[in-house]
Amino acid sequence: xxxxxxxxxxxxxxxxxxxxxxxxxxxxxxxxxxxxxxxxxxxxxxxxxxxxxxxxxxxxxxxxxxxxxxxxxxxxxxxxxxxxxxxxxxxxxxxxxxxxxxx
Length: 103
Hints:
The protein has 103 residues and is mainly alpha-helical.
């Protein structure tokens, strides 16, 4: 799978990582200009973890393996969870990148 070290998906702004952790990710993904397509779907954690737990996971991956990124709290997950509550499928790279560029 794609690396978490220096991944723009991990150390970038909070909304993309929150959406991926809440709803999952499917399809190919580009990390540091390298394309990864494992054919596997990253699962959603929206039903199994609360916002505080998701914030703790994000803090861990944003500050390990050489990553050094700002830690954000559970309120980000609460906000994104509310905004995306009707989401049924995992995100694709195109959806997340297009939305990030439009915001």
